[in-house]
Amino acid sequence: MKPNRTKKRVALLAVLALAAALAGCSGSEASSGGSAEAGAGSAKSVAEQVKRQIVGIDPGAGIMKSANQAIEAYGLDGWKLVEGSSAAMTAALDKAIKEKKPIIVTGWTPHWMFAKYDLKYLADPKNAFGGEESIHTVVRLGLKTDQPSAYQVLDRFEWTPDDMAAVMSAIQEGKKPEEAAKQWVDANAAKVEGWVSGAAQADGQSLKLGYVAWDSEIASTNVVKYVLESKLGYKVTALQVEAGPMWAGVAGGDTDAMVAAWLPTTHADYWSKYKDKVEDLGPNLSGTKTGLVVPAYVDLSSIEDLNK
C-alpha cells in the first residue's frame, strides 16, 4: 500500500504545480496586457499591441498628410503610418473588431463603417486634421460654355450625409456601384428633378468625371454619372485615380469635373496649386470629418493618449 500512497502523493503534487503554473501565466498576461480586453484598457498596451502602427489608405490621399502631421504635432516618436488603400484599411478594421483587438485607422465621415461598427474619433486638440470640411464640386474652366447642361447639374448637385450613406451601405452590402446609384436616384426622384429641371438633352455627348477610390466618392460619382446618363443622355466616363492626378486632370482640361474635392484641409495643397485653373462650384455635401479612429472598446480618447 505504501507505493500506491506515494504515487497518489506525487500525482497530487503534479496537479498543484500545474494549477500554480496556470495561475502564474494568467496573472502575467493580465499585468502585461496579454488579452485583448486588457490591451484595450491602457494606452501603453494599446501602443504595444498595434506595434505603434496607424493603418492608413493610399499615400496620395490628403488624410495621409494630415495623419503624418498629427504624428509630428503630438510627438508620436516610433509611430508609423502604414500606407495601403481604403479597402485594405476597412478589412484590417473588420478583422481587429472580430478578434476584439485594438486598432487605429485613418477614418472619415460619411463612411459606411460608422454604421456597421461602433467606432469613435480620437480627440484632436491640436487640430492636426483641421476639423469639419465640405466636399466640393470642381470643374474645368470653360465647361459652362462647352457643356451647359452638365454644368447645370453639377452646379445644382447637393445631397446629405444620410443620402451618401444609403448608397455606400448598398455597395458595401454587395450591390454594384451603378446599381446602388440607380436605386438611390429612383427613390429620390424629387431631389434629382431639382438638379436636372430645365437642362437640355446632351444627345450622347461625352463627359469625364474624376474620382478617388474612397467609398464616399465612389457613391457620389456614380450617382452623378447615372443622373447625367439616364436623365440627359450623356455618355459619361468615370476615371478612378489618386487625388493628385484627379486635380491635375481637371486643371489641365483632360477631365471635365469631380465631385470629390475635400476642402479646405484634406485637398488644401491641390487647391493651392490649381485654384486658378479650375472652377469651384461650392459644396455638394457638408459636415464631413477626418481623423484617427478606433473601435469604441479601445480605452483611448485623444491622440495625445498615444504618447503616454
From TrEMBL:
CDD domains: PBP2_OpuAC_like. The keyword Transport applies. Keywords: Cell membrane, Membrane, Signal, Transport. Residues 1-23 form the signal peptide. One of its GO terms (cellular component) is ATP-binding cassette (ABC) transporter complex. Residues 43-186, 206-308 form the ABC-type glycine betaine transport system substrate-binding domain. It is found in: Cell membrane. Its main location: membrane. InterPro entries: ABC_Gly_betaine_transp_sub-bd. Gene3D superfamilies: Dipeptide-binding Protein, Domain 3, Glycine betaine-binding periplasmic protein, domain 2. Pfam families: OpuAC. One of its GO terms (biological process) is choline transport. This is Glycine/betaine ABC transporter. It comes from Paenibacillus flagellatus.
